[in-house]
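Q: Sterol desaturase/sphingolipid hydroxylase (Fatty acid hydroxylase superfamily), please. Structure only.
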Amino acid sequence: MTSKAAAAAKYILAYLSWPLVFFFGLTGAYFGFASAHPMVAFAAIYAGAVLLLFLVERIIPYEERWLQADGETANDIAHTVLTKGLVELAALAGVIFPMFAAALLQPIAAMQFSLWPSSWPMLFQASLAVIIAEFGLYWAHRIAHERLFFWRFHALHHSVTRLWVINTGRFHVIDSLFKIALSQIPLYLLGAPLQVFWWLGAVTAFIGILTHCNVDMRTGLFDFVFSTPRLHRWHHSKDLREGNTNYGENVVLFDQLFGTYFNPDRPSSTDIGIKGQIAPGFVSQLTQPFTKDGVRQILGLKPKRG
Ligand SMILES: [Zn+2]
Ligand SMILES: [Zn+2]
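A: Structure for Sterol desaturase/sphingolipid hydroxylase (Fatty acid hydroxylase superfamily):
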């Protein structure tokens, strides 16, 4: 390929990669959910999208420096597996011990309303779910930045010095549970069916790997509706005037409504990270927010003497 043709190919890739991963991912999910093994099919599609982004990161990286290892890959994967695995384990326990699960969930099930518009086409039900869940996600995320009690858990996610597809799921398990509670319990109480939760999970999964990938994507008008890599990079900025913005997980509606939408006309920052220190190992990263000295480290304060 001539250098001109290569440049043209990269240009097209920059514009196509976001819609390609998002819309093809969701189309794949559509067929996956209709198959005999919906969760296995979805996991395969998701893994394919991660691999694709991993490759595109090497072709058109946003920041060359972020291609280099930071020693955190194993921790990133361990946090992802733990937080995702915990939800799977809860579901598995429900299958293995149905009586126990029924006894535990019965009081919650009794509170469930039947307000959910189950007769709507799934596209509208899923879109409604994304917006309702986003209200909880937005506030969980904003509180995690504005309240020190919650920041101690969320700082782990912001401690990365490179953004790439693999650190999408680097969340402290408490941070994740807080977000899941605020976003999914309202849907459950409204009586949303299981399929709606699948779709919400699919949208969150694809938007998530897109927002963190180190691909020089052009997202144009998508920046005004969805949480895109461009917007989320600002959110990871060390400069808090830039970083305490763009809290949206999937869509940016509530950032626009509550005045935290940030999309200036310049390339988003690559100076990312936090002032404090995160512990080096996986287990100490989990326990750090529970000790006084650990919290002081996270906040970038000196340990107290005596
Ligand atoms: Zn954040
Ligand atoms: Zn992030």
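A: Brief note, in case it's useful. The chain has one domain: 3-299.
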